[in-house]
Amino acid sequence: MTRPSSPRGFVLLLVLAAAAVLSLIAAFIYSRTEDQLMVSITTRGQSLAAARATLAAERKLAIYRANYPTATLGTLAPVANYATALNLPKQVGDREFANYDKTTYPSLEVSNGGGAQWCVQTWKMDRGVGVPPWTVVEAFGFYGYTVQVAGQDFVDCTPQGNPSIISSHVTVFLETPASGGGSCVDCGGGLGTGAVGGS
Q1: Which of 158, 161, 160 is nearest to 138 (CA)?
Q2: pTM value surpassing 0.85
Q3: Taking a C-beta distance cutoff of 8 angstroms, is the pair 97, 118 a contact?
Q4: Which one has a higher pLDDT value, 184 or 56?
Q5: Fewer C-beta neighbours within 10 Å, C or N terminus of the chain?
Q6: Burial state string for 60-87 with b = 16 or more CB within 10 A and e = fewer than 16
Q7: Backbone phi, psi, residue 19, to 5°
C-alpha cells in the first residue's frame, strides 16, 4: 500500500501568491506615500508663498499709510487694469523685492528661508471722470529659487528662470491722497492713505 504524497507544490504556490499580493500592496502604499509627500511639499510651499505675499502687502500698506510717496507715484497716470499698467512705459512704480538666491546665499536652502521671498509694485487705477484713482498695490509671495535670465531675477514681479516656482498674489486698493496725483479736486487729503479693499 502506498501513501499519498503531501501537496508540497500547492503550498509553495500559495506562498508565492501571497508574496505577490503583498508586494502589490507595498507598491501601492509606496506610490500613494510619494504622491502624498509631493502634495505636502506643494501645500507647504503655497502656504509660505501666500504668507509672504500677505506680509509684503501689509508692509507696503504701512509705509503708504505713514507717508504716501507722492514723488514716486505722483507721475503715474491712472489706467484701467494691471495688465495695461505693465504694458505701458513707466506706469508701474515703487517696485521692491526680496530674493535670497543660491549664488549670493549658497548655504541657505529654500526649506530654511532661501530663494525668492516677495515682490511688490504699485500702479494707479482709473475710476472714471471726477473720481480719484485708487493706488493699487500688487504683492507677490514665492517659494523656490529664481535663476537669472539676462542678469535679472525678476521682470516686473515675474520670477525668472524657474517655471516651477510656487507663487501667490495679493492685491490691495488704496485711496490716493489728493496730493498724490489724483484727478479729483477737494477729495480730502493728508500725508498717508487709507485702505479700500483687497483680493
Answers
A1: 158
A2: no
A3: yes
A4: 56
A5: N
A6: bbebbeeebeeeebbebebbeebeebbe
A7: -65, -40
